[in-house]
Amino acid sequence: xxxxxxxxxxxxxxxxxxxxxxxxxxxxxxxxxxxxxxxxxxxxxxxxxxxxxxxxxxxxxxxxxxxxxxxxxxxxxxxxxxxxxxxxxxxxxxxxxxxxxxxxxxxxxxxxxxxxxxxxxxxxxxxxxxxxxxxxxxxxxxxxxxxxxxxxxxxxxxxxxxxxxxxxxxxxxxxxxxxxxxxxxxxxxxxxxxxxxxxxxxxxxxxxxxxxxxxxxxxxxxxxxxxxxxxxxxxxxxxxxxxxxxxxxxxxxxxxxxxxxxxxxxxxxxxxxxxxxxxxxxxxxxxxxxxxxxxxxxxxxxxxxxxxxxxxxxxxxxxxxxxxxxxxxxxxxxxxxxxxxxxxxxxxxxxxxxxxxxxxxxxxxxxxxxxxxxxxxxxxxxxxxxxxxxxxxxxxxxxxxxxxxxxxxxxxxxxxxxxxxxxxxxxxxxxxxxxxxxxxxxxxxxxxxxxxxxxxxxxxxxxxxxxxxxxxxxxxxxxxxxxxxxxxxxxxxxxxxxxxxxxxxxxxxxxxxxxxxxxxxxxxxxxxxxxxxxxxxxxxxxxxxxxxxxxxxxxxxxxxxxxxxxxxxxxxxxxxxxxxxxxxxxxxxxxxxxxxxxxxxxxxxxxxxxxxxxxxxxxxxxxxxxxxxxxxxxxxxxxxxxxxxxxxxxxxxxxxxxxxxxxxxxxxxxxxxxxxxxxxx
Length: 681
Known about the structure:
Layout: E1 2-10, E2 16-21, E3 29-33, E4 38-46, E5 52-58, H1 65-79, E6 88-92, E7 98-99, H2 107-112, E8 114-115, H3 117-136, E9 139-149, E10 155-156, H4 159-162, H5 167-170, E11 180-188, E12 193-199, H6 217-230, E13 242-246, E14 253-254, E15 259-262, E16 284-287, H7 293-314, E17 317-319, E18 323-331, E19 336-340, E20 343-346, E21 352-353, E22 359-360, E23 363-364, H8 378-388, H9 393-399, E24 404-406, E25 421-429, E26 432-436, E27 440-441, H10 443-459, E28 466-470, E29 479-480, H11 483-486, H12 491-494, H13 502-518, E30 539-540, E31 559-561, E32 566-568, E33 572-579, H14 582-588, E34 595-601, E35 606-612, E36 618-624, E37 630-637, E38 645-658, E39 664-672, E40 676-679
Parallel strand pairs: 5-6, 12-13, 26-28, 27-29, 32-40
Antiparallel strand pairs: 1-4, 1-9, 2-3, 2-7, 3-36, 4-5, 8-30, 9-11, 9-17, 10-14, 11-12, 15-16, 18-25, 19-20, 21-24, 22-23, 25-26, 31-33, 33-37, 34-35, 34-38, 36-37, 38-39, 38-40
Helix pairs in contact: 1-3, 6-7, 10-13
């Protein structure tokens, strides 16, 4: 028996002109909304309320150190010592279609155009609000755990790296990805459903790097389906049941199950360099199971949801026992690792290898770098030396065989380019140990870590622990491959920033946390060096918000292109309005809705909302024109089974109006389409 609380809050942020975080493609800038992003919070407390654990899964690319520090600062001012570094886990789902710009380390500024306050604030406020809601709704309840296999939803995107792991180790596993989903089910004292957390290793990259609409990708679609099913009759994003589909050791795991093909010739490019005979690496892309990226997102998301629903309904193993949590800050650029009695090795100052610039088959890089390069390229090395300075011999030697492209640990202007101080954290809820990792562990790295933590618990008298990895927690440090995978330097290895012994260092550190929890000596763990907070308010290349303007004889919200008079299910109703920059709305209102689809009820002579902008059936596109003008197009992809009747689409926005040189205001407006009829098939 525990006290349980669940909460969900919007953390979408600005949906226009902000680079999307994930593919590191500066041209991939937000231009609208497919579905809202949410923070989902779960609080578990002992019945006497002596100890608590908070797990948050947010629909964002990853949790940044800046984000975590700001959230914890707000929690401290609200709740004192109740929610702390050690008992709050913040995890990102790893969608690649959320706004970026919430990082304090310089490397991330290049692809997300700096530190963007409105983007950071939206995520901080959304996470805190979701915790507030969970905190206010604590009630007695029970936890159940279940696990099962998810089929047809992932492939290993670096299988040649995986094959470098010892054959004796590989032979213990039936697949080169972890197909297991672990699910934690929450019910209240009367057996009423409260929510669930699912952990499953897959990259949310069903939406590719051509996408411009903010969305939560395949795992977000799974959350949507589960919450829609449980919160009957509610609009998306409403209702008390909260379903989180959280990330795990997804480092080398892609949802693009058809595998890599050359986009120009159609032949397979499943080779160690992921390169095509014509056009090289930039032509090699993996495809999902659907007709297009929206369809693939739906198929993979639905697979994940269906398995979760089955595990939820059948969950019978109860989780009981005390709550414990442990956290340390560690300088990851300087950890000594005892491999055995005679052999000690060290981690390195952070650096990225050449293959980092190649990207992956889920999203290729810009300059035709290839994966698996253990040789540098004199052309790029020379440019790098001129612009950023040359890596030191010490760093080069430490990272071998990685050819260093960016020696980020030696770059400090205007602020350090990468973190040195990293969070390691484990929270135990009875027999479930949640290992919160600061990045993307590959399949085999995750297996080694889970096994080491489990062994440590076993050895210290806490057997039969369920160990689950929560990915992309607390601070982002790119990838963590095994030592063997590191040797072949594909993208994941080139992005293992603390060198070849990164995994061994983490295994040693997490074993230390597990030991402290098992032996009840958490209070003796050194806190470690506090991470820095750089004094940056807003450094950004995002264009400033200017006054919005309208075409002659038009006003904001006027219809430019009207809907048809009649549609059937599975068709697309589309309307275009005179629009304004959606960033005005984001800065104006946290709970803003850009659109509604309404159905006319003749009995009451009134309109009822049937869809909002969090729905996966609606798409909101913003197109910037010249001189402050812009258009908004709203699509409703009418789902099968939509009730026949009379409908309309409404658009809600804000335009910026200058009152004087120094003062501007945002003024709300709306637009409405003509009515249209949906007829039976």
